[in-house]
Amino acid sequence: MVSDPEEPRARGGVQSLDRAFAILEAMADAGGVIGLSQLAADSGLPLATIHRLVRTLVDLGYVRQEPSRQYSLGPRLMRFADGSTKRLGALADPHMRRVVEALGESVNLAVLDGEEIVYVAQVQPSQNFMRMFTEVGRRAKPHATAVGKAMLAAQPDDVVLDLLKRTGMPKRTDHTITDPRAFVADLERVRQRGYALDDGEQELGVRCVDVAVPDAPRAMALSMSGPLPRMSDDVVAGAAPMLHRAAAEIGADLTVGAR
Question: Which domains does the chain have, with CATH numbers?
Answer without folding.
Answer: 9-73 (1.10.10.10), 78-257 (3.30.450.40)
